[in-house]
């Protein structure tokens, strides 16, 4: 699908007026450029360190950064930062001039690379890299469009970092701010991928969709994903979509009864009779867990679950004492199974609206 310059330009321009959107501008820029004819992938490098902070193909740009190919692209002797774009063609045959870039190109089938300066307020904030594997290559008009987008993105990046300190300190602050935000986004992407049981590409897409829907910076959504509160969980999974409840109950009969009642309420219950067996679910923790405190290791397991964002209902036979660390609710035995289900429902309701019959 062809890119719409007006839409991209407008969205990029809005990043200038809103603080905290520097990383969003970088991702928007790469997405738009990757849709230009002949461009297979796009990435943004910040500062002279050639740190890639946004890319449409993270795997390809991870390899690009691993061999430090970006250092060949940003060398002052090889790039005219005043022009709209600089072309690096026949890369695999130019090991004498660009050794790192040639090695990368030969391995990954890249024929041509273009660099477009992210320059605003007479300050070079970074470099846009366009990687091409096939013909036809981008036209002059396409490169002019990318150059215009890059200028707007650079203005947003620099203004977000230090609008009152240009041009002396902005590049350093920009690199620090954007790269620190990127670290948070990487962490949140990995955590979200594990919780949703999906790949990092899909998790990053969900993260960026959340940021766009909420009208907040990508780093803000990433911090929310790492905090993983009940509100955040609903925002990323959809209220009522993740209906899993883990039952860690020593008595198999009681566990089956609870599972049946929870199923009638719309939950997807899984049961186990030991903490050791339940630990296998820590990689993708459920929204709610009911844990029998008489089981060995139950208190520590409940605390670990709570730290990952799970709401823990502790079942205890003790007549006194406080709830275990991290427990959202404490129920004292003997207790009817219906009361346990009610506690789960109060903590994490999943009832859906029903059409009257």
Automatic annotation (TrEMBL):
PROSITE patterns: RESPONSE_REGULATORY. Keywords: Phosphoprotein. Residues 244-348 form the Response regulatory domain. The modification 4-aspartylphosphate is found at residue 292. The keyword Cell inner membrane does not apply. Signal peptide: none annotated. It comes from the Bacteria. The keyword Cytoplasm does not apply. InterPro entries: CheY-like_superfamily (IPR011006), Sig_transdc_resp-reg_receiver (IPR001789). This is Response regulatory domain-containing protein. It comes from Saccharothrix mutabilis subsp. mutabilis.
